[in-house]
Design brief:
Keywords: Signal. The chain is an alpha+beta fold and 333 residues long. It folds into two domains: 143 residues, Alpha-Beta Plaits (2-Layer Sandwich), CATH 3.30.70; 171 residues, no CATH class. Helix content is 26%, strand content 34%. Strands 12, 13, 16, 17, 18, 20 and 21 form a seven-stranded antiparallel sheet that branches. A six-stranded antiparallel sheet has the order 3-4-7-8-11-9, sandwiched between helices. It has a three-stranded antiparallel sheet with strand order 6-5-10. Strand 7 and strand 8 form a beta hairpin. It starts with a helix and ends with a strand.
């Protein structure tokens, strides 16, 4: 397949990064953690150090060993600042618009931990839950001081009913944050981790998609994904977010055979970009799913639109290009 050799060269180094970027839109709200759990500040209240922005600091896998143990699986490092862990919902058989949705397309839970110069840790996550799991997981998170900052859909009508909720916490005990997060996961059917399997070539015109979007992407053998980053520096209150965390536009293609694909994704926009982006998507025949915020305290304020389409993959990529050009983003690769 055209472009495979170059794609395979990039894949090993960036696939884990793409997974967290695909699910980026994580939830900023300032909180503080006690010794056993995250203790939330009231919404909108400035946290310690308000007025002076704090930068993330480099960390390594060894720094997050306790978090990995609490979550029950290993994660990976992104850009030397973000510890990411994926929880694909392989247990779910979800159908939307006649398409059996794979975990890589829209059913992946992703969480990220970031250490800051003041010694604190921020947790952000985008969590997939069934409608029957939602209230139980919410109660568990609330009992452990884990905030929810968004609750919405990523897909049009689906069976069974699925919800996506954004979680957030901030404190000085990263392991306590992880335990609180795990308490909610334990109220869901999220399956145990599996060892990584061999990647297989993906049945899509990768070169055509890349030419249409003007960027490289990555394939994990299940889906093909392209991601764009906001050019601005985004802060969650006084905490500066690492590039690619909570401020990305992500486009994911699931092959359906014969060059066709199911497309799911979202665009990260400033308020002044929203209408032009929505119009661009609709002119391309792409279905709008949601328009909402993922965060509570970010600066500048971001809006996200989720969308869906089924058709020729290259034509879908061409339809996306005007929406990309309507926003202040840059390719992540």
């Amino acid at each position: 397949m055209t472009g495979d050799r170059q794609q395979d060269t990039n894949t090993r180094a960036i696939t884990s990064r793409r997974r967290v970027l695909a699910a980026a839109a994580l939830a900023p709200m300032l909180t503080a953690a006690g010794p056993a759990a995250a203790r939330a500040l009231p919404t909108g209240m400035p946290g310690p150090g308000h007025g002076k922005r704090v930068k993330p600091v480099p960390t390594g896998l060894a720094d997050w060993a306790g978090v990995a143990k609490a979550l029950g699986r290993a994660g990976d490092m992104l850009r030397a600042t973000t510890y990411h862990t994926a929880f694909p919902r392989r247990d779910l058989l979800v159908v939307s618009d006649g398409v059996v949705v794979t975990p890589g397309l829209a059913l992946g839970t992703h969480v990220a931990f970031v250490r800051y110069a003041d010694g604190s840790t921020m947790l952000m996550g985008d969590v997939v839950v069934t409608e029957n799991e939602l209230q139980r997981a919410t109660d568990a998170w609330q009992a452990h001081g884990i905030e929810q900052t968004a609750l919405h859909k990523h897909l049009l009508s689906q069976t069974p009913d699925i919800w996506w909720t954004h979680v957030h916490a901030h404190g000085h005990d990263a392991v306590a944050l992880a335990r609180g997060l795990r308490a909610g996961f334990d109220r869901t059917g999220t399956p145990p981790a599996l060892p990584p399997g061999p990647r297989t070539p993906i049945d899509l015109d990768i070169a055509g998609i890349e030419a249409a979007l003007g960027t490289k992407g990555v394939s994990d053998g299940e889906v093909y994904k392209c991601v764009f980053l906001r050019r601005e520096t985004i802060a969650d209150g006084h905490l500066i977010l690492p590039p690619g965390l909570g401020s990305t536009s992500a486009f994911t293609f699931q092959p359906l055979g014969g060059g066709r694909a199911a497309l799911a994704g979202d665009c990260a926009m400033l308020a002044g970009e929203v209408q032009n982006t929505l119009k661009a998507l609709r002119r391309g025949g792409i279905k709008l799913v949601e328009l909402h915020n993922h965060h509570l305290a970010e600066d500048p304020r971001l809006f996200f639109t989720h969308f869906w389409a089924v058709g020729d993959a290259v034509e879908l990529a061409r339809a996306l290009r005007p929406a990309v050009e309507a926003t202040n983003v840059v390719p992540s690769l």
